[in-house]
Amino acid sequence: MTSILIVEDEAVVRDMLALNLQAEGYDVSTAEDGEAGLAASRAAAFDLVVLDVMLPRLDGLSLCRLIRKSSPAPILMLTARGTEVDKIIGLESGADDYIVKPFGLGEFLARVRAALRRAASAAPPPARDRLEVAGLTLDLIARRAAHHGEELKLTHKEFDLLAELMRNAGAVLTRDLLLQKVWGYDFVGDSRTVDVHIRWLREKIEADPSQPARITTVRGVGYRFEG
Ligand code: CA
In angstroms, rounded to a whole number, what is the distance separating the alpha carbons of residues 136 and 34? Predict the structure, then answer.
């Protein structure tokens, strides 16, 4: 039976969602604050977690990140309009989807079904120990880099940064995202850190570092590794 955990402090909303999900045939558990939600998420495995952003004791975004560390279950956030939505998207909370309050039950149930369907059809990510794009090779286990077969000396951060860019070849990555992925959530710095490392990387992998063709700048957004 598909199991769903709802973490929502407003009893009226919590009960309404629980009743409707039960009526759809789901096995539903509920928690009324962030800490209870965390305990519940650790006590059992759920197929989906529905999480309110504004929660007492432990806020929904923090809880989302904590659950994401230990569970692959899709997370559907319930949110008020505005800045909360920005946070869900911008902070890499790990949420799979969000729905803005007030929402209709029909829309909510459709989102739940869609999230479960996506999770069921998602193949497990391939275990990759090597990245190869356009003449550049990264051995992620030995942490060695090569450029057309020749060893490339990279610092630890340059290696991680290049790996992140190559993993997402063709996609634009923002400075903030790169800061989080390569330097970590707790890193206190500004996005110039990223720019400086990009410049160093370019000096090592670009034919003409002043006219970069591998790592291009997308003005006002970030960087893209051209596959
Ligand atoms: Ca709330």
Answer: 45
Range of the domain at 191: 130-225
Q: Within 13 Å, how many C-alpha atoms sit on residue 121's CB side?
A: 6
Tell me, in angstroms, the distance from the centre of ligand 1 to residue 119's CA: 26
- Give the chain's end-to-end CA distance (angstroms, integer): 43
Q: How far is the CA of 10 from the centre of ligand 1 (A)?
A: 6
pLDDT digits (tens, 9 = 90+) for 151-175: 999 999 999 999 999 988 888 898 8
Instruction: Judge if 19 and 90 occupy the same domain.
Output: yes
Rounded distance from Cα 20 to ligand 1 centre (Å):
19
Q: Are 91 and 135 contacting, i.e. CB atoms less than 8 angstroms apart?
A: no
Q: Taking each helix axis as running N to C, give the angle between helix 156-167 and helix 192-205, from 0 to 180 degrees, rounded to the nearest 10.
A: 90
pTM metric for this prediction: 0.55
